[in-house]
Design brief:
Layout: E1 6-9, E2 15-18, H1 23-26, H2 39-45, H3 54-73, H4 78-90, H5 92-99, E3 109-115, E4 119-130, E5 135-141, H6 147-163
Antiparallel strand pairs: 1-2, 1-5, 3-4, 4-5
Helix pairs in contact: 4-5
């Protein structure tokens, strides 16, 4: 999938794999220890969460609700329990959201981001569920012919040139 950013996460949002275009959105995780590749941990360490916009806040709340759904599906899972315990102790924002007992399974969402190189982008963030492993492939899908699709193609061409 060279023309769309894509990555795979597990039930607790550890990033397991990613393609070259995903690096433009989630960073190059190959230099990080596996423990530091958790998206929920990043969210609650981020300065952006201190004053989130409405779209960001909805996304964060939905992610916490999805984590709570995984917590219910896998009672006693050491990795999920450890992450929840850590965040309850380090993030008052996470603790407030966790206490709301919201449960939902994540689905696709339309996102708007301002990329530092490509500028404003709008795309559908599709989640493809792999049920036997509870992994999800997250794919950023631009509308055909849109400026975002052109930006994804330009980023892919740049990545291909660097690899060559």
């Amino acid at each position: 999938m060279p023309l769309v950013p894509a990555y795979i996460v597990d039930a607790k949002y550890d990033v397991l794999a990613w393609n070259v275009l995903a690096v433009h959105f989630i960073g190059d995780l190959s230099a990080y220890p596996e423990r530091d590749r958790n998206m929920i941990r990043w969210m609650f360490r981020s300065d952006r969460l201190r004053e989130p916009g409405a779209e960001s806040l909805r996304f964060v709340r939905a992610t916490v609700a999805d984590l709570r759904a995984a917590y219910g599906r896998y009672p006693g899972d050491a990795g999920i329990e450890s992450l929840v315990t850590e965040l309850l102790g380090t993030s008052p924002a996470f603790a407030r959201m966790w206490a709301e007992h919201d449960v939902q399974v994540r689905r696709g969402v339309r996102k708007t981001v301002v990329h530092p190189v490509a500028g404003p982008l709008e795309f559908e963030c599709q989640l493809l569920h792999i049920s036997d492993s509870d992994q999800r492939m997250i794919v950023y899908c631009a509308d055909p012919g849109s400026p975002t699709e052109a930006a994804f193609r330009a980023l892919a061409a740049e990545a291909a040139t660097r690899q060559a």
